[in-house]
Design a protein that fits this description.
Number of domains: 4
Number of strands: 18
Oligomer: single chain
Helix content: 40-55%
CATH architecture of the largest domain: 3-Layer(aba) Sandwich
CATH class of the largest domain: Alpha Beta
Strand content: 5-15%
Strand order of the largest sheet: 9-8-10-11-12-13
Number of helices: 26
Largest sheet: 6 strands, parallel
Structural class: alpha/beta
CATH topology of the largest domain: Rossmann fold
Length: about 600
Amino acid sequence: MTIFQKNIELLRRQDAELAAKILKASGGTLSIHPAKSGVPTAVVKNRAIHSAYDPIREGELWANHQTENCQPGEILVVLGVGLLYHVEAMCSKLAQGSVIIVIVPDLSELADVFSVRSLEGWGDRICWVWGNPEQMALQVAQQASRFRLLTYEPALLIHPKEYDAFRSQLRDQLAEGVHGRLHIMVIGPIYGGSLPIAGYVVRALEALGHRVSWVDHSLHDPGYQHLNTIRDARLRLTVQQRFSDMLGVISLAHVAEDPPDFVLAMSQSPLSMAVLEQMRRKKVMTAMWFVENFRHLTYWQQMISGYDFWFVMQQGACLDAFKNAGASHVSYLPLAADPTIHQSVTLTSEEREELGSDVSFLGAGYHNRRELLPELLRDEWTFKLWGNEWEQAGRLQTVLQRNGERIDTPTSVKIFNGTSVNVNLHSYTSEGFDPNGDSVNPRTFELASCGAFQVIDQRTLLPELFDDSMMSVMRTPEELVSVVRKYLHEPEQRQSMAENSRKRVVMSHTYLHRMQTLLSIVGLASPDRIGGILRGDRQAESLLARSRDYPELASLLESFPKTDRVELVDLAKVIRQKGPEAKLNRDELLILMMDEYRQEKRDFV
């Protein structure tokens, strides 16, 4: 009997359907060669999947590294098949009862493995999960125990799209089942475009049921802006930097006063590397949502190692750049809208007189906008320009509203609703459209959420967010006037497209959706911390079920509502309420000791 036949017989006892499928699989995904040590190794398209010298030793080193952070009782989910040396090494390291799941996106690859590698003695410990990404994600998500994803990168690169789809499906399915309550600290900037986004994030997290502490540094904006009165440029920059550093220390004080489960910082938040390193020393998990163009604002390069998680609004080159710079976790997270704020409204006659128009643009005065928007100065329609940074606007000065002051969110919503054709032109520091234009700005989602019609310049990431039935996409700058003219004469088409875009936002592109995605990504990467809390591991009901052998602790937990999250500080508070004369048992004394130790170690600053 061949190795392949023996493996099929072993598999048939575990999963007869999978065994039958592999018998029909063609194989040929892996190119098998002998390694220097004499055992088989594999290559795919000139890329080595295992060591050409000693793949067994390589697998052992991988398993040693991967199991460093694994916790008892976790299900280990391995992404990356290859020739399974790494999985066999994992089996040898773990206790017999440990559960190991291997994700198999391509049965042809597994057929190649079965032809050269014997599974005897360890293969029966593997749970093979196969099928399309959605089916595989559902099987994993339904596991009762918490699980940890482990990736074997060389084999992962054979089927990158399938593995990405699996992780995306798993993330979405887990997000739907989240019920644990986190304490999240959101740290915002002093000013700028990410400031309102921070507010939307706070509201979304609160709506999801989490406790949110918002460190709102916009309160310090007047003092920061007053520093611009310092005439000496070098001195002014020095003082502004020290002001920002002070706000970072204030943020650290907030963390020390009420330690969160993790800190979510927005772009331009005043957190220095020194502050972030102090948080890391104190085991505070940190994340940054970088809602900037990574090519234009490059301060992320100096901050890359400061955050545990990075979330960016660009893909491709951006993700590669962050990974190459040393980001341990970086994920694509596009912007969104808040439909409770960005919504259809009816303008009064006075508001329509001031804020309404046939055509409008709202935004800052970047070079490409100064170049293109004068084309809209025509007698055949009314055109209004809104926003700041339009000094020396030339011909556009005649249509600039409110002397170029910054427009707040409620007013912008009314402008969107009062305009027949909203022009959404992404910023670019040169002429025309950005040739590397990929990220989609917040205005796209906000206009759509308002049920407002828009014409927008082409962006490579736009089609996966909105399609052509939802907004008019300009491929070249020369199309601007003709597209505006076309849709001004098609009100029914405008209304239909705007309603389609509004429905898409509500279904897929709100800040609730984005925060669910963000939390599920963090939870997947830290199953014993954030993941455990999100699953409800720290709710009174769950803790009570695990404390039946400790009646004193169980009696304490029974005093809390079942769905309440219970921490050490909560137990200590209940014990102290018994009064100074109460006779405490050993477990209660230990809880008080640990709580005292916790308070003594809050020396963040």
